[in-house]
Amino acid sequence: MIALVWPGPGGRHRPLAVAPPDPAPGELLVAVELATVCGSDLHTVAGRRPGPAPGVLGHEVVGRVVRLGPDAVTDVRGRRVAAGDRVAIGIYAACGTCARCRRGLPHKCARLFKYGHAALADAGPLSGGYASHVLVRAGTPLAVVPPDLPAALAAPLGCATATAVAVAGAAGDVAGRDVTVCGAGLLGVLATAMLAGRGASVTVLDPDPGRRATALRAGARHAAGPDEEVPPADACLELSGAADAVRRAPARTATGGTIVLAGTVSPGVALDWSAQDVVRGLLTVRGVHNYTPADLAGAVAWAESARLPVSDVLGTVHPLTDLDAALGEAAGTTALRVGVRPLEK
């Protein structure tokens, strides 16, 4: 087994040989089939997002269970997990007992562990997706996925797709209503497809023509550049992280509408809205960060029925040993995801 260790911003990953672990109660050892590069990893390696180093990055993973600990594990849809099952791994592990977990917020657990965001010394080498295997901790939401679901769609289930379910839910009842989605990365395209499937008329704003075309294929009614003036919508979803899009969200939201902020997860974007715009506009503002196990269950159900074209999601797939090349390509490509696949079987 190997893991690729990130030394910190500006450094190159190095391979680390890993002895096979014995899973503890509630744990699973999963052989990685495919990991996809999330934008948060690009922010981390560039130094724009704090990340403990050295560590093993990567958190969008699909793979097969090769070993289980002594306790039974069930997935987010209540299925008992067995060796040989193909699973999508959630991005966090929660304790299940703290005040936040008891409130139904396990994704904000007081003792939260996040895959691909932990120091090597604390979490060990099989704690991120850029490895041949991941040691899945107790308290991790995971989903058994069918063998015919393409890996390009299965790997992001535990990050982008489940977050898109949470985002779409935060927008409320959108049937017959106008929704503006800022950003046509994978999160924006998935949210667009989900909202359009619920009867919303979706306008997508993104600077890249190729991504705008993908959004249209996903169900958007209209797609335009980020500076285009669009009528205020019943819901405005800011999924790009662009400061200007955050600032313009109130003006893009109709009276009584909802603003959903989910794209800004790094420091640096300040809210400079006028409070009276929110008060007089009767606006609801919702922040979305990560998701609940129920959202992951919804993501799997949606992916099994929707089946976006793989060509719209995944670009190049690199061998794990070429991880730095994969990250470099992901930082400069308009593809929604770049993949990493271990050579070890």
From TrEMBL:
Q: Where is the Alcohol dehydrogenase-like N-terminal domain?
A: 25-140
InterPro entries, alphabetically? ADH-like_C, ADH-like_N, ADH_Zn_CS, GroES-like_sf, NAD(P)-bd_dom_sf
Q: Give the Gene3D superfamilies listed for this entry.
A: Medium-chain alcohol dehydrogenases, catalytic domain, NAD(P)-binding Rossmann-like Domain
Short name of one Pfam family: ADH_zinc_N
Name the cofactor(s) required for activity, per the record: Zn(2+)
Q: What are the protein's UniProt keywords?
A: Metal-binding, NAD, Oxidoreductase, Zinc
* Gene Ontology CC entries for this record: cytoplasm
The record's EC number reads 1.1.1.1
**Per its UniProt entry, which superkingdom is the organism in?**
Bacteria
Q: Which family does it belong to?
A: Belongs to the zinc-containing alcohol dehydrogenase family.
The molecule here is called alcohol dehydrogenase
Source organism of this protein record: Actinomadura rubteroloni
Q: Which gene encodes it?
A: tdh_3
